[in-house]
Amino acid sequence: MKVMVFGTFDNLHPGHLDYFRQARFFGEKMMKRSSVKSKSVNNDTVKKEKTKYRIELIVIVARDKNVWRSKGYAAQEDEKTRTGKVTAALKKMKTNITITRPVVDGRSNFHGRAVLGGLKNRWSVLKKYRPDLICLGYDQKVDLRKLKDEIAKFRLCCKIKRMKAYHPEKYKSSYCRARGLLQ
Fold first, then answer.
1. pLDDT below 50 — which residues of the chain?
2. What angle do CA 23, 25, 31 make, to 5 degrees?
């Protein structure tokens, strides 16, 4: 199950981490639903499915040029720094016992990776990674019609889910910036 999230992830904070956690949760939930449907098909198929029970969270980090283009200001951290911080956070998520589901075949069922978004076409990553689920931030400004058109263009069968806010009064980056809590 491939779950994809998008964002700038400037000054990574607990709100971003909760966004990743929610995306992973919905991926697991969706996977459970699909395995229940396949149980009626064939028990051998289900056994094979269990060994492949794996959530891949693909975090698309916005390019510096695209941040400037969409927000009208530069990110405080460059794209490499932001990608590195997201990668480190995903590694912690993988080893955090309170989050990780049971191990299957001696492996964790979770794999996360941070990837830089496309420079010219922000949706090109859809074609490359072919997600099963796209999770959007609670306040993420996305042209849903355009996103759905791109999904159809690449012949993907994926769902779109909007995540809930996590203490936005405390962790929303733009509020922190306005209050002078971020440089």
1. 46-51, 97-100
2. 105
